[in-house]
Amino acid sequence: MQFAVPPRKGPVAPPSTRSSSLTFQRRKQLKTITTLSIALFTLFLLLSQLFYSSTETAAAARGTPGLVIVTVLDHTLYGDHYLQKIIKNREHYAQRHGYTNFFANLSDYDSYIGYAPRSWGIVPVLRHAMAKHPSSTYFFHLDAHALFMDPSKTLDAHLLNKHRLEALMRRDVPIVPPDSIIKTFSHLRSDDIDLMITTDAEDLSTGSFVLRQGDFARFFLDTWFDPLYRSYNFAKAETHTLEHVVQWHPTALARLALIPQRVINAYSKDSPSAGVDGTYKDGDLVIRFFGCDTDPERNCERELDPYYSLWAKKLKFE
Q: Which portions of this protein are annotated as coiled-coil regions (predicted)?
């Protein structure tokens, strides 16, 4: 009797051996993918940083894009020929250094000013400029009757640079010349400052100052424009109100830096009340024809023309 013999089978790998092989391959693939992902992400970060640095460097070379030059123009009193000279001067300076201009027609703000003197218009104009440029840091209000005379100077290096401002700050001096009992704080540093302003021989000068956007700026402009102050009928309207605010509100005084007049506010030779060393000299950043619009014996356009021609001549030799 014969019995069937089952055929021989080759060796069969244990299930665990095959599973281990698949797991190893999968781990190897995941490791490769992870390594490549990390390498690509690192490369992306490096390229982004390089791009950002080059963009930042280019912006620094142009100036501070976050600076806005604010000019209030009264079209009811002055013709286009005169105003266009002022606008052209501002536009050239801003374009050269990467700044922005904000030109305001004073008549557009009459409803905010009400029955107060129209010189109050600078406050709602500044608020409007800040609302229009919420990402900008500095706002330089410069009176319309003024010209940039040295276009090569940037406001960054001339005033806003931390070390430059530190050197310019006038400490422990009367807020209102010549002998106000309230003086600038002696302990302040440039990082504390939100308002940079000058005085002439008699007053704080509202015709040329720099304000940094932020919580203080909003508080400051709201306080300055308070209806109660506008109803006081101060002899010099917004100027005397400003002096009252900074002398009796320590919050304002603690954010203010007085700087020498000629830095941003040099007066023309025909302007009254220039402070000590406050009259324009060749090489100053700006010249301001202070009082040319209130003195019937003076003419703003006639005073401005020779300096405008001098400025235009400088451009040809650059």
A: none
Residues 89-113 as b/e (b if ≥16 CB within 10 A, e otherwise) read: bbeebbebbbbbebbbebeebeeeb
Dihedral sign for Cα 98, 288, 111, 217, please.
positive
Q: Tokens 């010099």 label which residue?
A: 236
Asked whether 229 and 172 are in contact (CB, 8 A), the reply is no
Is 29 within the bounds of a domain?
Answer: no
Number of domains in the chain: 1
Closest by Cα among 191, 174, 197, 183 to 261:
197
Residue 5 falls inside a structural domain: no
Q: Is residue 234 part of a domain?
A: yes
**4, part of any domain:** no
Contact 151, 92 (CB under 8 A): yes
Mean pLDDT by 10 residues, the chain (318 residues): 43 47 55 55 43 36 71 94 97 96 97 94 98 97 97 96 97 95 96 98 97 97 96 93 95 97 98 96 97 95 96 84
Could you tell me how far CA 197 lies from the centroid of its own chain?
14
Range of the domain at 248: 67-316
Domain CATH code at residue 124: 3.90.550.10
